[in-house]
Amino acid sequence: MKENFLDWSPSTDSLLKVKERELHAGLHSHISENERTADRILANRQFRIDALERILKEKGIRLKGEILEVGAGDGWCSAYIAKTKKEVRTIYTMECNEPAVTKLIPQTFQLLGIPDDKVVYVLGSFNNIVLKDKFDFVVAMGALHHSSNLKRTLSEIYSAIKPGGFLIAQEPYMADQTPNAFYYKQNDIEKNFNGYGRILNKERSDTFFRKCEYYAAGYHSGFDVSIIEIDQPIGPEKPANLILSMEKVTSEIGKTPVTTW
Ligand SMILES: C[S@@+](CC[C@H](N)C(=O)[O-])C[C@H]1O[C@@H](n2cnc3c(N)ncnc32)[C@H](O)[C@@H]1O
């Protein structure tokens, strides 16, 4: 049980829905109490590892310095970065629920045999990042689509990144032409999470934003945005996957983007 962690009080973030936080707290607590192995932790993660390596290679970026991972889940990506990216000095690994920060993520490092001496555990929300102009990179793996307000989340991440730093993310996305009806329908779907009861989608935040919404929210937050489509949406209802890099361009710091609304 990790007792030393930064507490940025995610429960005070009004954009983080209570059921979103509680559901993941329950899931993460449950996972940490069940038998876990290194193989199982890494199973199904190769897709995201490949996505991370691909965007770094295509943009000619080396992960280094101070990193913040938001919505880290069980912390596999922070562990991967700690193991493979030797120029990284510190990784702030953030989750919005306590079982993830105190039990699940430390357990992942332990099971994978990766020292966590570079890791700062953070209980916090990506809508309220306390450290400003601090990080060389913010990494989000399937986390941004849990935002209830993408512009707010990206603006907050922008303010946390150092001049010249980047947000790197892998997320699902929908075609730009996806009608609002799709989202209304999604919102009214009720899912049964084993052991946590039935939750309506609109009670939490799990949204397949359109690709154009990543562009708009990113540009309007001040970033320059680059998106690679890993695949394309099949039909009107199925999301595809993208990788994005957003750069906080040094010469533009302090300017209000002309096109923002
Ligand atoms: C789909 S999971 C992805 C987890 C992990 N990155 C992975 O690749 O497996 C999304 C995570 O975002 C977290 N999350 C949701 N809202 C958040 C917020 N406002 N701030 C930080 N994390 C949040 C959830 O608790 C959940 O663990």
From TrEMBL:
<dbReference type="GO" id="GO:0008168">
    <property type="term" value="F:methyltransferase activity"/>
</dbReference>
<dbReference type="Pfam" id="PF13489">
    <property type="entry name" value="Methyltransf_23"/>
</dbReference>
<keyword id="KW-0808">Transferase</keyword>
<dbReference type="GO" id="GO:0032259">
    <property type="term" value="P:methylation"/>
</dbReference>
<dbReference type="InterPro" id="IPR029063">
    <property type="entry name" value="SAM-dependent_MTases_sf"/>
</dbReference>
<keyword id="KW-0489">Methyltransferase</keyword>
<protein>
    <submittedName>
        <fullName>Class I SAM-dependent methyltransferase</fullName>
    </submittedName>
</protein>
